[in-house]
Design goal:
Helices cover about 45% and strands about 15% of the residues. With about 725 residues, it is α/β, with parallel strands linked by helices.
C-alpha cells in the first residue's frame, strides 16, 4: 500500500540526491493499482523512469489513464535537434512516426512500449492524444497520481524541455501524499480534474486526436509478450540498473522489488484482469455447496476449462497449495490444458500420455507431497489412466487432489467404469458439452453417482443460452441431402437385410445389440455412407456457390469424410489411414480447383509446423483448412467463418463439438455459415428393412434438426428437410 512506502521526508526527488526520481516511481508503481499520467512528450528519460516497475504494476491488475502531446512545436523540435547532434544525448520520440521509433529504442524504452501494448490489448488503459491549439496546449512537465484504492500520491515533475534539461538528463519532482494535509489533497484533486477534463474533452485549448491508429500500431509493433515474459524482462532490467547505481536506498528498493517479482511470478492468479465472470463464480459456489462434486455441462466455447481451473485457484487461495489431476482424451488436449494451466501461473505440470516418459517426475512429486505441502498438476489421457504403471501412482495421490475429468462421458466406457469405485479423490469436477451417453444408462448412472450430480446438473449452459448471451456467434445452417448411387444403394440394402436377419435390432432404441458380427456389418455399411461418391460433387457445388458469393474462400474449415472413429479408451492420438489420406487429398484438390487464388492446406496428424499453419490461417494467408479428426483435438480456430461438414460418422456429440468450435467468437467475425452433407438412403416403404432404416434416418436427422433450431435461417432449413421427412413419415416435432 502507498502508506507503507518510505517517502522522501521533504517530498522532493532529484537526480543525484539520496531520493532519486526512480525511487519515487518504483514505490508508486509497486504499491498502486491505478495510475493517471500527464506525459507532455515521450522522451527516453521519461520512459526510462517509468519502464522498470511497470510490469509489476500491470501484474497486480493495474489500470492506467494517460494524456500525451505527441506533436511538437517548432521551438521544441529546435531544442531536440540541437541535442540530437550529439549521439550520446537523450532522445525524444514522435509517436506519429512509429517506424522510425522502432529503430531508436533501447531495451528500457522497448520494455515500456511492450507494457503499454499489453495494457492496450487487455483494455486496461485509456489514452487521450491532444494537439496544442492557438499556440496553447498542455505543459511539458510530467505529472500524475498513483492510487491504491484508499490513498493517493500525486506528483509534479520539473519542466526539462530545454537544451540543458534534455542534454543533462536532470529529473526533479515534488510528491503530494493524500493522507498528509489539505494542501496535498487539493493538489491531487486538481491533477485528477485536469486529466479528467482532457478525457471528457472540456479543455478548449487543445484539439483531440484519434488514438485508435496509435493503439493498433503499438499493439502490432510491441504486443507480443505476455505478463510473465514482461516480468522476467523487468527483473533483468532491474538487475542491470542496480549494477549501475550506488545509491543505497535505491539499491534496497530494487532488491525488495526482486522479491516481489519472484512472488508474483510464483503465485497463481486468474489470467484475465477483469476476473472471473459471474457464472464462473457461481459455478465454484455451486460445486462447493454440492460437497465439492458436480458436472459442468457447458456448450463448447463457453469456458469449461477456465471455469474448472478457477475452482482450483479458489481452493489454492484457501490452503496455499494446489493439487489436481486432469483427464483428457488426446495428446493434443494434454498440450492445450498445459497451456491453460500456465496462464493461471500453475507450475509443476506433469503430462502423462503414450508419447512421454513421465514416471520419474510423478514419482518425485508424489513422494514430496507426503513430506511437505507440494503443489503440482497431473494431466493424463484416458488411454493412460487405467494402465497399471500409472495406477500405482494414482492410488497414492492425496485425497484432497482435485479430479477434473474433461469430456467426462469417456469415464462411462467399460474400460473406465471399473476404476470409479476405487478412486479415492474426494473433490471432483466433470466437464462436457454433452455429458449424456445415449443408450447407455449404466454408464450414465455410474457417472452421475461418481460426481454426485444429475440433469440438469449444478452448472449447465446450453448452446442456445451461449448464443443468446453472446458467448458464441450466430450462424446460418444449410443441410444438403446427398443420395447414394445405385451401386452404393444396392450394397447398402444387402447389408441391411443381413443385419435384419440377425434379429438383434431394437426398435425402441433404434440400436443393434452389440456382437462382433453385428459390429462388422455396421462398419461396412457406415463406410458406404462415409465414402458416398455424390458427396464430392455436392461439396464442389457448395465451394463454387460460396466463392461466387464471397469472391474468396478465406477462413473456411472443411471436415473431410473420415473412416473409423478413434477409440480414446485405447489410444490418445489419431492417425489417418491410407484410405483417409486418399480422401483428404481428393477433397483438398477440389478446393484448389475452385479458383487459382484459393490457398488451401491440409491439417492432419502428419502435418508439420501445425502452429504456423494455424497462424497463417488466422492471418488469411491460408484460406482453407481441410482436416479430419485433428481439429477435434483441442485445436481452436475462432477465425473460421465458413465450415463444410462432409463427414458422416453418425456421432452427434462430435458434430456438436465441431459446431461449437466454428462458433467461437472473434473480433473480425460477425456470424458463421455451416454447410452439412447429410447422406440419407432411400429404402422403399414395401421393403422389409424400411422400419429399421426409418429409425436410423430419424436418429441422423435429430442432429440436423438440433442444428436447424438454433440457426438464424431455421425456416429455410425445415423446407430443405421436408421431402425426406415425408418419405420416411417422420414428424419434425418428434425428432
Amino acid at each position: 500500500m502507498l502508506k507503507d512506502c518510505d517517502w522522501s521526508l521533504d517530498r522532493d526527488y532529484k537526480t543525484g540526491s539520496e531520493n532519486e526520481p526512480l525511487q519515487f516511481y518504483l514505490d508508486g508503481l509497486a504499491n498502486s493499482n491505478e495510475f493517471s499520467l500527464l506525459l507532455g512528450y515521450f522522451s527516453s528519460s521519461a520512459i526510462n523512469l517509468l519502464s522498470v516497475g511497470f510490469a509489476t504494476f500491470i501484474s497486480k491488475g493495474g489500470k492506467m489513464k494517460m494524456v500525451i502531446n505527441h506533436l511538437l512545436s517548432a521551438k521544441d523540435k529546435e531544442a531536440i535537434s540541437r541535442v540530437e547532434e550529439n549521439p550520446n544525448e537523450i532522445r525524444v520520440f514522435d509517436l506519429t512516426d512509429i517506424v522510425s521509433l522502432g529503430r531508436v529504442l533501447d531495451e528500457y524504452d522497448t520494455h515500456f512500449f511492450e507494457c503499454l501494448a499489453y495494457l492496450i490489448s487487455e483494455k486496461r488503459i485509456e489514452i487521450k492524444v491532444v494537439k496544442p491549439k492557438n499556440g496553447k496546449g498542455i505543459a511539458h512537465y510530467k505529472s500524475g497520481v498513483f492510487s491504491d484504492g484508499q490513498d493517493a500520491v500525486g506528483y509534479q515533475a520539473s519542466c526539462n524541455f530545454t537544451y540543458y534539461g534534455l542534454s543533462e538528463n536532470i529529473e526533479q519532482l515534488e510528491a503530494f501524499l493524500s493522507w498528509e494535509n489539505g494542501r496535498s489533497n487539493k493538489l491531487i484533486r486538481k491533477q485528477l480534474k485536469l486529466i479528467d477534463d482532457y478525457f471528457t474533452e472540456k479543455d478548449e485549448d487543445v484539439e483531440y486526436i484519434s488514438v485508435s491508429d496509435i493503439e493498433v500500431v503499438l499493439k502490432d509493433r510491441f504486443g507480443k509478450k505476455d505478463i510473465n515474459e514482461l516480468l522476467v524482462q523487468e527483473e533483468q532490467l532491474l538487475r542491470k540498473k542496480q549494477s549501475l547505481i550506488s545509491n543505497p536506498k535505491l539499491k534496497k528498493t530494487i532488491t525488495k522489488l526482486f522479491s516481489e517479482i519472484e512472488i508474483i511470478r510464483r503465485t497463481p492468479k486468474f489470467p484475465y484482469s477483469e476476473g472471473p465472470r459471474e457464472y464462473q463464480i457461481n459455478a465454484y459456489n455451486s460445486w462447493v455447496a454440492n460437497n465439492y462434486k458436480g458436472m459442468f455441462a457447458m456448450a463448447t466455447g463457453t469456458g469449461k476449462t477456465i471455469t474448472s481451473l478457477n475452482c482450483l485457484l479458489n481452493e489454492y487461495k484457501k490452503t496455499g497449495i494446489y493439487r489436481a489431476i486432469i483427464t483428457v482424451p488426446t495428446t493434443a488436449l494434454v498440450e492445450q490444458w498445459k497451456n491453460e494451466c500456465a496462464k493461471f501461473n500453475f507450475k509443476n505440470i506433469i503430462t502423462v500420455s503414450s508419447k512421454e516418459n513421465w514416471d520419474k517426475n510423478l514419482a518425485f512429486f508424489n513422494t514430496a507431497s507426503k513430506l511437505i505441502d507440494t503443489s503440482y498438476i497431473v494431466i493424463v489421457t484416458y488411454a493412460s489412466l487405467p494402465r497399471p504403471k500409472f495406477q500405482s501412482y494414482f492410488t497414492q495421490l492425496p485425497k484432497d487432489t482435485i479430479l477434473i475429468a474433461d469430456e467426462t462421458h469417456n469415464l462411462g466406457s467399460q474400460g473406465h467404469l471399473r476404476l470409479l469405485p476405487n478412486i479415492q479423490l474426494e473433490k471432483r469436477i466433470g466437464l462436457s458439452a454433452t455429458p449424456h451417453r445415449k443408450f447407455d444408462e449404466a454408464g450414465n448412472q455410474a457417472i452421475q453417482e461418481f460426481f454426485n450430480d444429475e440433469p440438469p446438473y449444478i452448472v449447465s449452459y446450453s448452446m442456445e443460452e451461449a448464443l443468446n448471451i453472446g458467448w458464441l456467434c450466430k450462424y446460418t445452417y444449410h443441410p444438403h441431402i446427398v443420395k447414394l448411387t445405385d451401386q452404393e444403394m444396392e450394397k447398402y440394402k444387402e447389408l441391411s437385410l443381413q443385419l435384419l436377419r440377425m434379429g438383434l435390432f431394437d426398435k425402441e432404441t433404434g440400436n443393434f445389440r452389440s456382437t462382433p458380427e453385428i459390429e462388422k456389418k455396421l462398419l461396412e455399411r457406415k463406410r458406404i455412407i462415409h465414402k458416398a461418391a455424390n458427396k464430392l460433387e455436392a461439396f464442389k457445388a457448395i465451394l463454387r456457390s460460396e466463392f461466387d458469393k464471397r469472391k474468396n474462400l478465406k477462413y473456411t474449415l472443411i471436415y473431410v469424410p473420415e473412416g473409423i472413429e478413434a477409440n480414446f479408451d485405447e489410444t490418445d492420438f489419431s492417425v489417418e489411414t491410407d484410405d483417409e489420406n486418399r480422401l483428404i487429398n481428393e477433397y483438398t484438390k477440389a478446393v484448389s480447383n475452385t479458383d487459382d487464388s484459393v490457398m488451401v492446406k491440409q491439417f492432419t496428424a502428419n502435418s508439420e509446423n501445425r502452429e504456423d499453419i494455424l497462424k497463417n490461417y488466422e492471418d488469411g494467408k491460408i484460406h482453407v483448412l481441410t482436416s479430419m479428426k485433428c481439429l477435434d483435438e483441442g485445436v481452436d480456430v475462432p477465425r473460421s467463418e465458413l465450415a463444410i461438414f462432409c463427414a458422416s460418422t453418425g456421432n452427434p456429440r462430435q458434430f456438436i463439438q465441431r459446431r461449437g468450435r466454428v462458433l467461437r467468437l472473434h473480433k473480425d467475425k460477425i456470424h458463421a455459415t455451416i454447410h452439412d452433407l447429410v447422406v440419407v438412403p432411400e429404402v422403399g416403404g414395401e421393403e422389409n428393412t424400411f422400419e429399421m432404416e426409418r429409425g436410423l434416418v430419424g436418429k441422423e436427422l435429430e442432429r440436423v434438426v438440433d442444428f436447424a433450431n438454433l440457426a438464424m435461417n431455421k425456416t429455410d432449413t425445415y423446407e430443405t428437410l421436408k421431402n425426406i421427412l415425408d418419405y420416411y413419415n417422420l414428424n419434425l416435432n418428434d425428432l
